[in-house]
Structure formats: structure tokens, C-alpha cells
Amino acid sequence: MADVESAPGAGVKSPPYKETDNGVLRFQLELEFVQCLANPTYIHYLAQNRYFEDEAFIGYLKYLKYWQRPEYIKYIIYPHCLFFLELLQNANFRNAMAHPANKELAHRQQYFFWKNYRNNRLKHILPRPPPEPAPAPAPSQGPATVPLPPPVPTPVAPPAPAPASSMPSVPAGGASAMSPMQFVGTPGTNMPKTDMRNAMGNRKRKMG
Fold first, then answer.
1. Which of 22, 21, 45 minimizes the C-alpha distance to 33?
2. Main-chain phi, psi angles of 21, to 5 degrees
3. pLDDT in tens, 130-163
4. pLDDT tens-digit map of 41-56
5. Residue 111 pLDDT > 80, yes or no?
6. Domain limits at 55?
7. What is the tally of structural domains in the chain?
8. Counting beta carbons within 10 angstroms of the beta carbon of residue 97, is it exposed (0 to 12), middle (13 to 18) or buried (19 or more)?
9. C-alpha distances in angstroms, 62 versus 9, 72, 87, 122?
């Protein structure tokens, strides 16, 4: 015990590790490991070898979440690794990945995602074509023809009445009360017959 305490450097903490390349090597190693998590078969390998039962390894997985920050995510080539890295923070997922059936299920779902991802994404990112404009009416050769209204019918004037002197006197009782002898004259005419006795009497009165 005394020899151990008297040994040089005994009880003195070793200085912290200093990176001579400004962390370039650590950056490359962690980037490679994180992107390996995009393979469900590799996660199944870690689960079967009981890496997920080590608390230090669980802490390391939590530490690697810094790759989700914008300044680091631009170096990620396989983005599925960040999805599985988030799932590995859950103990149920870590335990489930130890079973081959779950590994095959995760691999199959990943395959279908890759198969349909492009078509599904194009439906949302491609702009939809604008609606087709309505065809413009063809220009007319001349002024537009307006249909004319129908002509107004010309009123027909009724025939002028005959002079009162030439019309036969009709008794108040109607035409049926007239004597048939008054219409005896030229065949085919309706002129009444002149009473000669009345005509001669009127001339005598004028002469006297």
C-alpha cells in the first residue's frame, strides 16, 4: 500500500484528453456511426449484442441528438438515421428491435417509404397548373346586328259613309217593315223606286 502511494503520479488525476486535430476525427467517427443507425439490421445487431443494456451507451445515444441541429444536419446523407436515433431514445423500441420479426417489419416499412416517398412528395411540392382561361369570343367582321322589331301593322280606315241624300229612308221599325214595292226597279240593284205622285206634287207647290 505504501509502495503504491509513493509511486510517482499516484493519486494525481490524468489531464483531460486534448484533441490535436480540432475534433475532425471525432466528427467523422460520430457522423459515420449516426448514419449507420439508418439500417434496421444494424440496430438489430446492437440489440442482440446487448449494447442497449449499457447505460453509458444509452447516454451516448442521447448525446448524439446534436446531429438534429441545423448546423450539423446538413452533413447527413441518410436522413432515416435521425428518425431511428429519435426512436432509440425509447426503451420499448430498443427492446423490440432485438426480435428478428420486428427488424423485418421496420425494414419492410422503410422500403415502402422509399418506394412511394417521391410520388407522395411530388403531390405536395409541385405547383398545380392554373385553370385554363375561357376562350375569348372571335372578333366580328362588322358591327353587331341588332334584330329589328316587327313592323307595326298599318290600321285600315273604315269605308266612308254614303251621303245622307242618296241613302234610302228606313222606317224606325227596321228593314223588315219596308214595302217590297220600293225596291222594284232595275234588276240587280237595290235602288228604291221613285214615287211619281209625290214628285209631281212637290213641283206644283214650287211653281205656285
1. 45
2. -110, 20
3. 677 777 666 655 555 656 666 766 766 666 665 5
4. 999 999 999 999 999 9
5. yes
6. 21-125
7. 1
8. buried
9. 35, 15, 11, 34
